[in-house]
Amino acid sequence: MSKIEQFKLTIRFSTTFFLCAILSGVYFVVWDNVYNPEFENEFIGKGKVFLVTVYFLILLVTSIVLGASKVDKFRKSEIMFYQILAAIFANCIAYAQICLLEAVLANPFGMIYILLLQAVVIVVWTLGSTEAVRYLNPPEEMLIIYGSHLATEIVYKMSEMEERYKINESINVDEGFDEIVEKIEKYRSVIICDVPARMRNDILKYCYQKDKSIYVVPKISDIIIRSSAEITYFDSPIIHAHSQGLTIEQRAVKRLMDIVLSLFALIVFSPMFLIIALAIKLYDGGPVFYKQARATKDLRVFDILKFRSMIVDAEKNGPQPATNNDSRITPVGKVIRALRVDELPQILNILKGDMSIVGPRPERVEHVEKYSKEIPEFTCRYKVRGGLTGYAQVFGKYNTSAYNKLKMDLMYIQNYSLALDIKLIIMTLKILFKKDSTEGFKERKRKSAEK
Known about the structure:
The chain is built from 18 helices and 10 strands. The protein is an alpha/beta fold.
């Protein structure tokens, strides 16, 4: 492990702390010159300190929650996006405070000016900090140890971040433990992918003893154990893995949040509902909504609602996944899919109780039957209601494999918290700007064939 790796948490926090301090300074200067003079009783002294401190804390916490502090892990574009998103969130709260203090709708242009200045600072800071971290902590020289599968997908994905990871060599477990150990000695980082349990345990323990940085592609059992609670009543360590899904208290809080937020969203987006409905109806006179049987908690089947984006009877020959440049998608459908608003009617599913705002994506009934035969653990994701957004929706892609989606869904279920729900709701904004999150099946196959 490199020296800088040992201090990564300190580096992350300190860089984010100073950036947020600068951004708060930008906010304070503009606020003090634009908004403060408009108050009947201007804020002075401790009042100013209190307001800017609150702003700074909101910005810092939001930045850390979104992951903007991970300058050693994420791409520059992702760090910029998360930090700007954090600034937008903090500025919205600050603007609401200003409006409440003035008891009128304040001029928003001051806040827009603040955000533009902050965006410039964020871009410059991100470029400088990421380059500095890269210089101090060059790409890891890595060895990948794989089992029955070649793990080409992991290699491909990690190679996309060549400034952080450099996979130099691979070895199959069939080569034997002695040969693997000899290879491990050459590298400070090791990736373990799809290795049989006994061999994996031996490799893990050896790497741990030798202070190697270890990356493991998790199995379902790993995810279950990872969220276990420790029992220290006995002199023999025991861990307890819960398997009941959410507790009654968690379900109650989650349902309350679903109702409040979905009602608010329904009011806010009602004009958009009307515009989209008229556009679909005027185009071909067909139905506005598209219904499809999906599975939710305890495998209960319900009809999910979407704005219709395809021609009428698009699946008359049976279910077919959407592909890039799909001829069945209407011109209106292309627009609402690009804007990610075709799924807005699911707000009604949430109010009804068929879905939650956050949870595993509800799968088609026929897909559930198919995946359950291929992956017996697939039904484990139905311990909670399906969600409009979720862990797999945020971190995965449209064409992410069912097994990988299952692992992400179980990570969400096993580590559920209200804070995680809020984080995923905020991070959902990220996928609105990521083309690869909706990459079609044909495009992915083409990319694979080209490699």
